[in-house]
Design goal:
single chain, about 290 residues, mainly alpha, about 0% strand, globular
Length: about 290
């Protein structure tokens, strides 16, 4: 026969400081293992590409002024590191500012389109029409209007990165479960509460996917703006290297452009893992950069 004292469960033991440290260490170890599992395949692919590149240039299958050796490219990157760092910062600044503006304007436009039929019928066709226009054709106009400073490059980055944010935001906000909306209305929740607690969190998976596309396009927008009229930035260096047939500097510049896009993409990926750890793509590890299969 059990007594009342037997029915009383002992309180859960509070983990000690060493146990908490051990758990944090285990969690960090798991994250490190997941990161290693995610990056080893791309690293192998890059190593294979590098070996093929080295083999082709070492055997002089292609003229050196067309394809430089990997050693000459990295030598230029080291010798010109101060100059390249300065111009990389300019392009990175234009890209980040353009992306942040595109994200803010795009999310606001998506909310307006979803909540207003008038805005949807008025803005959506114009947004689509603006996306179809080649941005390289807009760049000279922006240079005429705003000069050769940073403004036209940032505006061009906004214009290119804006569309995927709007499309993903609209799709995510409209994909809210109708039963959740009905339940919220039944419980008397305001439209703002429904948006903050139901619609927007539910739209985050699709919105984050659009932001990852937008951040890479923002790099393209900034570089395209530097092509047309600039005296600094990686796009400007690319034009100089191309005009002087300096293939080593050209390849170094392309590597830095790619590095900017990859780093910013990873930043959005990390933000996604922090904002929506509950989503199936995060639990199953099926995202682009965290895939383990």
């Amino acid at each position: 026969m059990t007594t009342a004292q037997d029915d009383i469960k002992a309180p859960a033991a509070v983990p000690t400081a060493p146990e908490r440290t051990g758990r944090r260490g285990a969690r960090f170890g798991n994250q490190l293992a997941a990161f290693g599992s995610a990056v080893w395949r791309p690293l192998i692919v890059l190593a294979v590409i590098g070996l093929v590149w080295w083999f082709v240039t070492a055997r002089e299958m292609v003229e050196r002024y067309l394809v430089p050796t990997p050693g000459s490219v990295f030598e230029v990157m080291w010798d010109e590191r101060s100059m390249l760092a300065e111009h990389t910062y300019v392009t990175l600044y234009e890209t980040v500012i353009g992306f942040l503006l595109a994200a803010l304007i795009g999310i606001a436009s998506a909310v307006l389109i979803v909540y207003s039929k008038t805005a949807e019928r008025s803005l959506y066709p114009i947004i689509l029409f603006a996306q179809v226009i080649p941005k390289i054709a807009i760049a000279p106009i922006l240079i005429v209007w705003f000069g050769t400073g940073l403004s036209p490059k940032i505006i061009l980055a906004v214009l290119i990165a804006f569309f995927p944010v709007v499309v993903s935001g609209v799709a995510g906000l409209r994909d809210t479960d109708p039963e959740l909306l009905d339940l919220s209305a039944t419980m008397g929740a305001s439209r703002w509460s429904v948006f903050v607690k139901v619609r927007f969190p539910g739209a985050l998976p699709q919105l984050m996917a659009g932001l990852k596309v937008a951040v890479t396009l923002a790099v393209v927008g900034a570089v395209v703006g530097e092509f047309v009229g600039a005296s600094e930035g990686l796009g400007y260096i690319l034009l100089l290297a191309s005009g002087n047939l300096n293939s080593a500097l050209l390849f170094a510049d392309l590597i830095l452009m790619s590095a900017i896009g990859v780093v910013l993409f990873v930043v959005i990926e990390v933000a996604e893992s922090l904002l929506i750890p509950w989503h199936a793509s995060r639990r199953e590890g099926s995202s682009v950069t965290m895939a383990t299969t």
